[in-house]
Every structure is written in C-alpha cells, then in structure tokens.
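Tutorial sheet, problem 5. The two components below are modelled jointly, 225 residues in total.
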Amino acid sequence: QQPVQSPQAVILREGEDAVINCSSSKALYSVHWYRQKHGEAPVFLMILLKGGEQKGHEKISASFNEKKQQSSLYLTASQLSYSGTYFCGTTPQGGSEKLVFGKGMKLTVNP
Amino acid sequence: DSGVTQTPKHLITATGQRVTLRCSPRSGDLSVYWYQQSLDQGLQFLIQYYNGEERAKGNILERFSAQQFPDLHSELNLSSLELGDSALYFCASSVGTGINSPLHFGNGTRLTVT
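Model answer (structure tokens):
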C-alpha cells in the first residue's frame, strides 16, 4: 500500500511552478507531505485530512481528492530553497495508524 | 531543530553483530515512529509506538525489535546484522498518531555494516 509519486524528478528554474502527485490504491484518511534536503531529516509541510480540512505553508498548497485517492502538492514561484526530495505519506481509512511514504520526488531549482 | 534526539549519529559495526539505536521524542509527544532509509530509497516504515504500546507495524524484520519505555524514549534493536541493513534510521515523534498529527524527525542514525 505504498503510495506512488510522480514525477520521479523535476528540474525547474527559479520562479517556475511545480506539481507533485501522490496516488494510492487504498481509500485514504490522511495525506502528509514532507521535504527532505540532502543530508538532512525530512521536514513537515502539511497534512490533508478526509473531509477536506487543509493545513499548509505559504506559496505551497495541496489538494486531496478522496474519491480518486490522490493528492497533489503545488509549489508556486519556486525558490532555490525549494530544492529537495518531496515525500507524501498516507494513512488508510479504517483506523490503521500506519503512515507509509512514497519513494519521493526529487526537485532541483536552478537560478 | 525538531526537538527529537537520536543517538548515536553514526554507527559502524560488523556483520552478525547487534546494535541499539536510541530516540528521545519531543517534549509532550506520545508517539514514536521508526523509519529506514537506504540509498536512493524512500522512507520505509518499520514500527510505531504510542504511549508505550505498539500501534502499527510495517515490514520490520524479525531480527529487528523495538520498544518504548515509560519515559517515552524508544530503542530500536538490530541483531544478526547483514550488509543490507546499512542505512539511515530515522526516528520521528508526534503528539497524537500519524493519522492527523505532523511527524517531527530526528537527524537519524547512520548505520554502516562491514
């Protein structure tokens, strides 16, 4: 039940936008998004919950389509600091608290 | 600084040996999670504890075991180590469970098995 992330890698120029997708074969209760810079620990970005509640960051937003079991992370006007690997993690409906992460999407933002 | 402390930072040991990784969660957090990250791999979920009790289990090998103590710190024990166990092991903590609480990751323990 590992979520699938796409694309696997993206290279942008500063100021461009990016969309990262996360999909699951299971019905989901929540979707987490984290960013990990090289050599560092993952850092929380936001959680999306079943029912539409959203928490977030400025210039970084996300959507959660419960019916399609998909989530997308939107990075607007990317900055150099956005570079890193983005992971989505999902918990299934049904009460399981297992938070399983996808393989990640590597984003490189160039000047 | 996430407030999650992992020790040691680096560990080098030989095949067949046993090691213990330690994690102190953020103050007030009741849940502790363990993840394994190999080179160019994602975060593989191992196990989760909440207030001393096991709450969820991932693809954790039988050679691996973990526990959460009354003071909420956690230890991950890896035994009969193999070369393939070399990885970065992250501990994370949260106030509630992973369903609706953000995880705060420690800086990890890098294990090298030679």
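Marking note: Chain A is about 0% helix and 55% strand. Full credit if you identified this.
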